[in-house]
Amino acid sequence: MPMLAFRLATPRVLVDLRRVSGLDRIHIGEQGVELGAKVRWRDIERDTRLAVAQPLLAEAVRHIAHYQIRNRGTVGGSLAHADPAAELPAIALTCEAHIVAVGPRGEREIPAAEFFLAPLVTALEPDELIVAMRLSAWPKARRFSFKELSRRLGDFALAGAAVFFDLDERGCMRALHVGAFGVADKPVRLLETEAALNGMRPEPAAVAEAIKLGTSGLEMRSDIHADADYRRALLETLLTRAFDEAMQRSPS
Amino acid sequence: MTSITPIINGVAVTVEVPDRVTLADTLRDKLRLTGTHVACEHGVCGACTVIVDGLAVRSCLMLAVQADGAAITTVEGLSKNGKLSALQDAFRRHHALQCGFCTSGILTTMHALLLEEPDAGEHRIREVLSGNLCRCTGYIPIVEAVLEARAAYAQAESGA
Amino acid sequence: MNRPNAYIGSAVDRIEDERLLTGKGTYVGDLNLEHLLHAAILRSPVSHGLIRSIDVSAARALAGVRAVITANEIGDVPIIPIRQHPVPEGERFRQPVIASGKVRYVGEPVAIVVASDPAIAEDALELIVLDIEELPPLADYVTAARNECLLFEEAATNRAATFRARMGDADAAFAQADYTRKERFSVQRHTAFPMETRGLLAEWVDATGHMTLYGVTKVPFFNRRVLAQMLGIEISAVDLIEVDVGGGFGARGEFYPEDFLVPFAARYVNGNVRWIEDRREHLMAMNHAREMYAEMEIACTKEGAVVGIRGRIDIDLGAYARTNGFTTPRNVVQFVSGPYYIPNLAIDAHSFVTSKTPTGTYRGPGRYESSFFCERLLDMAATDLGIDPAAFRLKNLIREEQLPRPLATMMDLDATWQTELDNGAYPIVMQRCLDEFGWQEKIKLQGQLIDGRYHGVAVGNFVEGGAGGRSENASMTIEDDGMVTVAIGSTALGQGLKTVMSQIAADALSLPIERIRLLHGSTTLLTDGVGSFHSRATVMGGSAILLAAEALLDLVRNEVGMRLDVPAANTSFSDGKVEAAGKSFALQDFAGLSVEKTFINTKLTYSYGAHAAYVAVDAATGEVEVLDYVTVEDVGRVINPATLHGQVLGAVVQGLGSTFLEHLQYDENGQLLTGSLADYLLPTATDFPNIRSVSLGLRPCPNNPLGAKGAGEGGLIAVGGVIANAIASALRSLRVQPCDLPLSPPRLWRLIAEARSAEMSR
Questions:
Q1: Residue A9 touches partner B, C-beta closer than 8 Å
Q2: What backbone torsions phi and psi does residue A135 show, to the nearest 5 degrees?
């Protein structure tokens, strides 16, 4: 809508999905969680089951925009808009979510890693519509943290980080996933960081080194709110704090 | 042009609107409910907030055609029988407004919040209020007023 | 006080509020007239260029369009006069009401469209074909100062004006000083940003040749004179009407290009035309403020007495000298010393035109900036000399017996430019601020790292000028229903004027406040008036009300004397009853009596006070949290403590926005990069929750009958310097010195990183 108000977009047709039924379901099952495209931020915020079933998602959503926007903003809208500084695309990518789209050729599932292509550009075809996002099941003992810094509450993040991992019986990290947003032209996974630390204990020195490894290859965004140097340093700080918090937080 | 029939402050109103016109402009220009103010038209300032089907939303981000059949409360619908509501009265006593331009949107937002969460604490009130810009007050008197008005909402909820 | 109807000093509820709280306020966008047409304005998309052609044929042909007006249709394009602080050299840089031949900033009006519907008017803007030959942009003052490319060829320079302030002999003082330090500072471009954008509704009645313009504020009588002259009609044929106004803060209500274009368009189409500015337009068309760069130097004795400040300030004026474009440059040189006894001063400010939006005043113009420079220098000097920053300030504050004291002399300008600080107990108020703040305890935390954040404190002082603009009018009329209609030339921009003025009037007439009908701001109410700016409304309008009340009561006395044949002096007034010689009258027995009075005052008022801040800095991210902020001020006499408290809190948060968030940024081509509220960052409810303020009526002003001093800006003035000093205090172990605003996380992070690497290489 702001794009229309600024006369930057002048679509011939706009379709409101308000009356399309069945897209606002939150399904929580053994296999994981499915969020319908019309699920709003307030629905996630108020669904106490999600705080257990997908705590990282629940925490990330608290950072999205403001009250009035959370009353209207949806899962499908955020995924399709694909803002590089938005929280949900980052969660989708970090958690290896699948985006379910339907079109004239039927339904298909697109892995988040193949979905976000560039700022505001996705793998969605012009005749396709997002109907849901699927997240796999979350082990109860999983460690996680979500950190972002924005200029004011509700603003897009200058940088943000999402981290989760399981700890094995020896205290080593397994299934480590590290995501970042607001720093590049789309949300990113820090695969080098993950590779360097998977199977390791979260020792501060090793974590610091792995973070550097993961961020060094990133082409950092620079804009009027923050330059690339700052974003790089900020992301490293947020990641460090995210690992700390994930370790300190006792699993539910 | 499309014909829509929202229920505005309890009264069903049928109105013809061009497809490209926002709910905010329709309320103001067609229905002459000029208490809803427009201050940014891009969904940031919160001045145009109205309550649609129980939820505070920015009426500049909603097309009028999307409001067909919806129950809408504007600032004009907050006071009953010419008496200030508890929230409005608290605003007056705490000097929670100066120029008054942002006030309508803040009242509707806080009204929606307290209906749902009459026990909202200062932190939550500030968090929700951060979606409304005010240039005059520094927000402090607004927070004080909302904190005080909570009692009336809690009472209404408990049916006392 | 036990006498009835003593309203001054009490926190009465605002008369304005009931309407505003129920959505019944009437702002200019809420007005509706029959056959209303709507205007939209085409603005220059380039910052500097020659207009080759404007093809409006397709726009004119669009269904619903009534007119497309360019400089061609206007003919002899009027130039907007400078209202405040005009200097001869600055006249060359005044703004025409519409670009003709040349555009000088992105946002400059090029054409105005009138249509049956606002959306159609906007559609028509897209159909206008504008051919502009681009000239080199002058996107910063450094480029402009080189004079390689001129914004105004006929002026032969981009330097619009220079203001110089002097006291004592600064160079001699510096030559002999024990200690000197020189630093560079800058303040970023930002803006007043009232929540209501500008808007105007012009009603032209052809039959009578009368123009009525709604939506004006601040200085309607001045604007009426200007508009009448530009339209070539008698002043009596023009009326300016003030309706509800959604905030001003110095920027709204000046005579802008649209204040001519909209009424001109109404006359051109022979109808009623409304224009409501959109927010993107607002950010590129309304006055910007504050962008300046300074090199300042302080000199002290080794015991910590400041003996001089000297320096040079370069100001980015934007493309034109607008109505109050020179107020900030003048203030910034004259007010550097603030409330401090600094015997030797030499400050120059050069204003340069650049191809950016013109600048004007924003709350505390020039004072916020000069306070930032001065307070930063004071803290650096105190630290270097090993003196507690609070003790250092107490030592250098002007003492009560040293007042009145002139501020630095404005060189080569007449006596009207000179001013003196009136009275006050500066050290007492500062000490009160330290006590409220808990300085003794908090100073112990300075520089400490607590839970990963560095903590710091600072204190600073300010003076706030008020009561500018020489005169104000008020009238009073006794009505048949026992009400007294009070009209004032002061204007209401949301500050609670109606309430405050009603308090003064009710008090002076000893009437219940409900019996005062207060009108303000419109040219239809009085023979003349001035308005609201420079913290003047309460002092000037309020004093005019006192004069009018006295005159009205004199008329009643005379009338009583005639009716009863007793001496007029023996008449008493209380609670709407008039008593003399054992007889009692009701006030309405004198219905029809009416007076208009003018209060004249050439002396400014100076309220003053202190601010203290306690902050925590996250050195890894550059984030700052304001843990406590305390202001204490003396306004001479408090009329309504609640409205005043609101003014101060609002001003502090605006100041914090100026210091941390708000920044109008341009690229090297002079394109505005912060044209939306997603990029122009205003303070929100979660940013600055910890503010306390105390307002005192300690030393009544000797220069007006109310004893009041202008207030409302003081909460903002000291914020930049105090916050920057608190951050420096927190980061003292790293020797970080924030000298450039805003103090955004990226900027602070970089300062910290640089300080750390300097430490390493030491």
A1: no
A2: -120, 135
Mean predicted confidence (pLDDT) in C615-637: 98
Q: What are the backbone dihedrals phi and psi of residue A48, each rounded to the nearest 5 degrees, phi first?
A: -65, -25
Cα→Cα distances B149→A239, B74, C422, Å: 41, 19, 44
| Residue with the two structure tokens 């809208």 | A77
Q: What is the pLDDT of residues A100-109, one digit of tens each?
A: 999 999 999 9
Spatial distance between the Cα atoms of C186 and C37, rounded to a whole number of angstroms: 45
How many angstroms away from the CA of C748 is the closest CA of chain A? 10
Domain C17-25+468-600, CATH 2.102.10.10 — does that match?
Answer: no
Two tokens, residue A217: 């290859």
- Model confidence band, residue C214 (pLDDT cutoffs 50, 70, 90): very high
Closest by Cα among C437, C424, C422 to C389? C437
For residue A62, pLDDT beyond 90: yes
How many folded domains does chain A comprise? 2
- Sign, CA torsion C432/C435/C440/C444: negative
CA-wise closest residue to C111 among C95, C99, C94, C93: C99
The pLDDT value recorded for residue B85 is: 97
Residues of chain B with Cβ-Cβ distance to C638 below 8 Å are none
What would the pLDDT profile of C29-54 be if each residue is shown by its tens digit?
999 988 999 999 999 999 999 999 99
Mean pLDDT of C135-148: 98
Strand order in the sheet with C102-103: C102-103, C49-55, C129-134
What is chain C's mean pLDDT, rounded? 96
Residues in A closer than 8 angstroms to B20, CB to CB, are 4
Which single residue is written with the structure tokens 């240039």? B135
Percent of chain A with pLDDT over 90: 90
Q: Which residues of B touch A4 (CB under 8 A)?
A: 20
Confidence class of residue C13 from pLDDT cuts 50, 70 and 90? very high
**Shared domain check, A220 and A149:** yes
User: Cβ contact (<8 Å) for A69 and B58?
Assistant: yes
Q: What angle do CA C640, C645, C648 make, to 5 degrees?
A: 130
CATH architecture of C288-467+603-760: 2-Layer Sandwich (3.30)
pLDDT, tens digit (0-9, with 9 covering 90-100), for C367-397? 999 999 999 999 999 999 999 999 999 999 9
No. of helices (H) and no. of strands (E), chain B: 5, 7
- Look at phi and psi of residue C606 and say left if phi exceeds 0, alpha if psi is from -120 to 50, else beta: beta
Would the CB atoms of C653 and B138 count as touching at under 8 Å?
yes
Q: Give this complex's ipTM.
A: 0.97
User: CATH class for domain B86-158?
Assistant: mainly alpha
Enumerate the residues of chain A whose CB falls inside 8 A of the CB of residue B60. Answer: 1, 5
Interchain CB contact of C183 with A (< 8 Å): no
Do the beta carbons of residue C371 and residue C718 sit within 8 Å?
Answer: yes
Range of the domain at A173: 143-248
Nearest residue on chain C to B106, judged by CA atoms?
Answer: C21
User: Which residue of chain C comes nearest to B133, CA vs CA?
Assistant: C684
Angle value at C-alpha C333, between C185 and C220, nearest 5 degrees: 115
Q: Is the pTM of this model over 0.95?
A: yes
pLDDT tens profile C293-319:
999 999 999 999 999 999 999 999 999
Q: Number of residue pairs across B and C with CB atoms under 8 Å? A: 178
With contact defined as beta carbons under 8 Å apart, do C752 and C734 qualify?
yes
CATH of residue A192's domain is: 3.30.390.50
pLDDT band at C644 (very low <50, low <70, confident <90, very high): very high
